[in-house]
Design brief:
The protein is an alpha+beta fold. It contains five helices and four strands.
Length: 181
Amino acid sequence: MDGAINYSNPVYVADTESKLLWPDHQHPDIVLSIGTGYGQQHGDSHEDDEPKHPNYGRFVYKLLEYMFKQHISKQSQITWEGFLANQRVVKETKDERYHRLNVEFQTGKLPEPDGIEEMEYMETETTLYCKEHPDLITAISNKLISSLFYLKLDEIKQDHTDQHRQLCKGFPSDSFDIGRS
């Protein structure tokens, strides 16, 4: 995340970088996009933000701040949906490898960027989101863990009992082993 200065959702940047690093890999093991949360527009109310006596400078600032937060939140999701639509893979592969976690704030109001006092609320909403999506959280966790390991092959032989099967001998290794001697 770059703080939404250039990219509210840098999934295209990460995808381009992975293709440069691993040009032989058609699809990554996993793409995990973690959103910053969103609120439904119809639930947002800024009546409390408006001063009792009109102060147009503050009103314009609050209006621009509100529009910016909504734009970043919405644009991030649109970017993800566009990225998914551009992936030339079957639905099962998308469901297995491409995931987005993005908490919907139940009040409908997005927390302030510097809203330290809203941290507990955001933590509660995130915990609730995880409890409501246990299968997704488990699938992502398992995929992240399994992508750390691979099989170092010692030999591959044709199975003499079945022409469609090969016998592989090797041992599991972790992806951190690549730089070890």
